[in-house]
């Protein structure tokens, strides 16, 4: 065959993204020159996307063990014990580059890929969350944006949301939560991170370990086409240039209907006991699934390409091995029982073909009509990619940046503060995300107890048990850019806090690390610092990392995104009936601020430090165009106390609502709790002291370890008692009720408006921003 | 009495219907596989929501040709109870068991949200346990639920009291604002001439437990149970 006869040189290797050293290593492993097919196989497996070659040495610092962890990183997804013999299988993954090149299909296949990772392990997917980052929708956000950029950002958002809806709704998994943020750095590099959760019985978990010499290797699902070739290596492992739209053919096309059939057929086949191992064909397709299964199982695999179902004629071995056609699975069955397996796939109308067998020689051997076209040691391919400790260097200090200036004598101007507050509520990051989440079926499977917009985390019940699971994703790229170590800690803490606000105990985490080009020392420094931040926070809060994904090269024309680690935290509610929402429930309830903080109280901090901290806030960005300073200090002990208290309060059924403080601080948190009702409930609150703090800080600062809760009058005493026991300060702020949202300070009204008018702003802002032209 | 839930390739609310009937109502329920014409002696058939056959061509257009639908059509014409929910409603329209057709939602987007339905008639086996004008809180989740029929058909549906549910406000007013998808005359569900076939876009099987936000959908399923009991189904 022609293409295997091309002389493979270092230049050809370089075109495949392989360095001269990597090429030398390949020749050493093989003891000869690779042919083109083999080079292609190495290039995808040793791509950044598949090999984690730049991140591996750092990821080792993450805590991965804990009392609930059954399976940490290294499998298709992480697995944790949730009692009653059941396991939660969950993982988050990125599909950033494809979603920029082709937003609809990029996002759709992102959902498809992570769903396969879950049901590959024998778990039926029961929930999906999406963590999305886009460029701004507003003309000044925080600086002037061109109409072309805004139009493109709207188009990307629309495409991504439609793609997620298209895939998840048809597949039949509820999209129950997630979050969306907007920053200029994501204009040319949006982030689409998808988290999926599934449930399986412990003894019914499946792993991707090929075992048993002679066992048949079966290909299942969609036919292999020429789509997505080099998706992992060229799309996901390189920066974007102006020609990136030319990479559209590298994006795969999704078919959620086929994936739904694949789900049902795989779960049914697994129930027969005839399946030994199974892995989906995602990034690097047939190459990755064969060599990883063989490598993990300590075996070899031999396949015959002529047997692979193909969408078009004349595909070369290179193309077949590197295709990233969607909705395909590879499985190993018990010898002699293959017919039983094939019959089940036939019942579901799916292609299923025995394409090879497990061998004992440790080799991935690829035949084309009987002729060997590639022969590579599976373990070397899957695990012996060079690992890099890339140079790291902190960026030069940001000197001379202008910090937020607090207003003097603010108390006298309630009209002005109310107007500023309205503008903050209209900021897409704060505004209601209803326009997005109503396009998702968030109820299918009838487990959704707390759906999108209703609580700080999504809560899904586990049928057949009294339990429920809570999930939240979080990550503040702006803060991580200002300080990756502190910002990453906040990402963990906020996700855990959100989970705890529903009453669930955080038990495990998954992460998706979105960064720029790792070959740049400053990016690598950001990455290492962020990993350190995640590690200390996960350790402190008892949420080990069970899996996830690294996405590097999020740069276009040399401009990197903010370092954006996204954390997904899973929590367990022993009693599903205790699940709490974030909205106030009835008039006359007491509103309290719970503050776990023992850090120096703001009044003992210098004015300059306060300014630096507040310059990192959403308020400073939105109302003053300031992105500077440092994130609030992360206080993990305070977070821990608050989380423990929230869980205890929920367990005693003392609260009517709980909502953490994040973007927009106390004022926004209380308002959001007001907006949940139908009609919205008013509230009147007094800002806690000290009253010497600048008013903007008191209203809108974004320190962690705090939550706004409400409870009925008779429960107050017990709430205070528990708060004392858990060493959390409880400030009684005021009462719910009426039709007015009023904030007072030291007896003076500082913000006041009909709650319905504020809600109107908040509820319609995102749609307005998307419709503006 | 026994319920059957049809499983088409791509059905994804089949488990929810099965759970609502089997677990919540405690009634016997069985799966009916699309490739079989054997209805296993069930007394009522549920065509569940989802994306049967991927909704290729048109929603419900391929499903109506499946073997199970031949049996369901015979069952329906013989007076058997058939409830089509969401995609099931679309299939009933394609099969000609109910009149009219579905257009894309007026907003051209998938819409998932709880809506209010006004019970327009209690003279059906699906609403006999409701009271006239009762308002139910039941979710919708579809992108093609914009019901349409010609003027003559509409007059006939009205004349024959076959409009079973209309989208309404929480206090039972039928207004344009309460219409989530542009359906003609706010129609959310209609029944057949024989009143034994109901198609509805909202999902009663998703509103069967207070923990899910509403149990108002139970009245539809309980009505079916009562109707079957009355008819003497063992």
Describe the structure.
- Chain A has three domains: about 1-40, no CATH class; about 205-385, PurM-like C-terminal domain (Phosphoribosyl-aminoimidazole Synthetase, Chain A, domain 2); about 415-770, PurM-like, N-terminal domain (60s Ribosomal Protein L30, Chain: A, 2-Layer Sandwich).
- Chain A is about 35% helix and about 25% strand.
- Chain A has 26 helices and 28 strands.
- Chain A has a seven-stranded mixed sheet with strand order 8-10-7-11-9-12-13.
- In chain A, strand 12 and strand 13 (about 370-375) form a beta hairpin.
- Chain A starts with 9 loop residues before the first helix and ends with a helix.
- Chain B is an alpha/beta fold and about 230 residues long.
- Chain B has a single domain, classed as Class I glutamine amidotransferase (GATase) domain (Rossmann fold), CATH 3.40.50.880.
- The interface of A and B includes residues 260 and 449 of A.
Features:
heterodimer; A: 773 residues; alpha+beta; Phosphoribosyl-aminoimidazole Synthetase, Chain A, domain 2; 60s Ribosomal Protein L30, Chain: A; 3 domains; 7-stranded mixed sheet; 26 helices; 23% strand; B: 234 residues; alpha/beta; Rossmann fold; two-stranded antiparallel ribbon; globular
CATH topological fold name of the largest domain in chain A = 60s Ribosomal Protein L30, Chain: A
Number of helices of chain A: 26
Please state how the strands of the largest beta sheet of chain B are arranged side by side: 2-1-3-4-11-10-9-6-7
Structural class by helix and strand composition of chain B: alpha/beta
Tell how many strands the DSSP assignment of chain B holds: 11
Oligomer: heterodimer
Q: In percent terms, what proportion of residues of chain A is strand?
A: 15-25%
Which CATH first-tier class of chain B would you pick? Alpha Beta
Give a topology summary:
The complex is a heterodimer of chains A (773) and B (234).
Chain A: H1 10-15, H2 20-30, H3 36-45, H4 48-51, H5 56-59, E1 69-71, E2 78-81, E3 86-94, H6 96-101, H7 103-119, E4 124-134, H8 147-171, E5 175-182, E6 191-201, E7 216-221, H9 231-235, H10 256-271, E8 275-280, H11 285-297, E9 300-304, H12 317-322, E10 328-333, H13 338-347, E11 352-359, E12 363-368, E13 371-377, H14 378-383, H15 414-425, H16 434-437, E14 448-450, E15 458-461, E16 468-474, H17 477-482, H18 484-501, E17 505-514, H19 521-541, E18 545-551, E19 555-556, E20 559-560, E21 564-573, E22 590-595, H20 607-614, H21 618-624, H22 636-651, E23 657-660, H23 665-675, E24 683-686, H24 695-700, E25 706-711, H25 716-725, E26 729-736, E27 740-745, E28 748-754, H26 755-771
Parallel strand pairs in A: 4-5, 9-12, 17-18, 24-27
Antiparallel strand pairs in A: 1-2, 2-3, 3-6, 4-6, 7-10, 7-11, 8-10, 9-11, 12-13, 14-15, 15-16, 16-21, 17-21, 19-20, 22-25, 22-26, 23-25, 24-26, 27-28
Helix pairs in contact in A: 7-8, 7-10, 8-10, 10-13, 18-19, 18-22, 23-26
Chain B: E1 3-7, H1 14-24, E2 29-33, E3 44-47, H2 67-77, E4 81-85, H3 87-94, E5 101-103, E6 111-119, E7 135-142, E8 146-148, H4 151-159, E9 163-168, E10 187-191, E11 197-200, H5 218-230
Parallel strand pairs in B: 1-2, 1-3, 3-4, 4-11
Antiparallel strand pairs in B: 5-8, 6-7, 6-9, 9-10, 10-11
